[in-house]
Write a structure and sequence with these properties.
Layout (H helix, E strand, L loop, with lengths): L1 H24 L10 E11 L5 E4 L2 E2 L5 E26 L7 E21 L8 E9 L2 E10 L1
Parallel strand pairs: 3-7
Antiparallel strand pairs: 1-2, 1-4, 4-5, 4-6, 6-7
Length: about 150
């Protein structure tokens, strides 16, 4: 019985050493963050604190700027927030699943953030769109919207 307990102890020690070595080998980065995104809202404008005004998920083709307001919570210093604006499908058939723009910013703490996209000169093509938001490279949320 003592030999079995000793063998299990040795196996556990070896497993812990291998885990520690693998962490050291990748620079010790684990990829965990306390940061989160919530309250993502599509809107035609934001106030001075980047909170949404005129909330909507449907925009006119002549809307000059489309905004997404989102609440960042518990973010450590230099948290990277990325937003991908994507045209999914619609009037512009040859642009299905087209990445319109990608924006990266750094932020910290708990605050509202705003991303915006300015209309093309000829107006927005009608169809379905989405904004995909990431924290430190990990997808956090997706917000669909449309243009009619």
């Amino acid at each position: 019985m003592k030999n079995i307990s000793f063998s299990i102890s040795i196996i556990l020690v070896v497993a812990l050493l291998l885990a520690a070595i693998s962490l050291i080998g990748c620079g010790g980065e684990v990829g965990f963050t306390t940061a989160s995104l919530s309250e993502a809202t599509m809107t035609t404008g934001v106030d001075a604190d980047f909170r949404p005004l005129n909330v909507t998920n449907t925009f006119a083709a002549d809307t000059p700027v489309i905004y997404c307001s989102v609440k960042l919570s518990n973010a450590p210093d230099d948290t990277e927030i990325k937003a991908d604006w994507i045209y999914i499908k619609g009037e512009a058939v040859d642009l299905a699943d087209y990445l319109i723009d990608s924006v990266i910013l750094t932020a910290e703490g708990t605050q509202y953030l705003s991303e915006s996209l300015t209309s093309p000169d000829e107006g927005w093509p009608s169809g379905d769109y989405k904004i995909v938001m990431y924290i430190n490279g990990k997808e956090e949320l997706t917000v669909p919207f449309s243009v009619q």
